[in-house]
Amino acid sequence: MIQFGTNPIAWANDDDQSLGAHIPTEQILREASGIGFDGIENGHRWPDDPAALKALLGQYGLRFISGWYSLNLLTQSVAEEWQAIQPHLAKLKANGCKVCIACETSNSVQGLSCPVNNAPVLSPEAMRDFGAKVEELAGLLAAEGIALAYHHHMGTVVETPAEIDAFMAATGPATKLLFDAGHYYFGSNGQDPTPALRVHVGRLAHFHAKNVRPAVMGDVRERGLSFMDGVRAGVFTVPGDEEGGVDFTPLLRILKDAGYDGWIVIEAEQDPSVRNPFEYQSLGLKTLKSAAAEVGLA
What we know:
TIM Barrel; alpha/beta; two-stranded antiparallel sheet; 298 residues; nine-stranded parallel sheet
């Protein structure tokens, strides 16, 4: 059964914690629950203790969906990564999560003040080696009942359509995909994400319903701005925003046809002082539920 979730970065950003610093944690949870979300992803405001996290979210009728984990497999061994991921894995298991959202960040430019256009690029040989390590780690997680859902992301070694294809080819069945409509749109300079989702939906484990404002995206690219400059300028938005470039109805139709039964999460960071999180998240959820009903995704 499909469940709809959100991410607290709409209210309080993780990479630039000045964005939303004025918003109380209680407000984030109260609004997320009041909008009608079933769950919420991880954020820097939540407690690290697994039981405390479950109790906090439970007060608002929310489930812990999963949370971002920064991989460093380009700089350390699988054994070292497996040791490092144990606290995060304990949090996921204690809260009944089914996926571990992971992304290689050892050489990412996403949190830096350098142009997002300068994203690192792996050679074909390096991608094959990297994929083999991710697959080994994914196998260890699968043995614990958790699917590794790899998040292609701006500013990282898996950003463009070609890199997504190469990564999926370099990994095996244990490695699943987190498909992010917005990051695909941005990473492809405005290509429709529908064909790519159709290709990779068989290994989909998680879906991020992020939208992109094409005008802002073009400005970020042309001026050589950083990823966070783009976030502050409003490059990302929610489904249903008339300024957005992504049509979510065909994407949800693919999910329906593939029998997808995971989470659909609105993970769309904006400056909450400029764009009210309650209003935008409400618009996003209303849009997704309407599209889901249209295509028969229940």
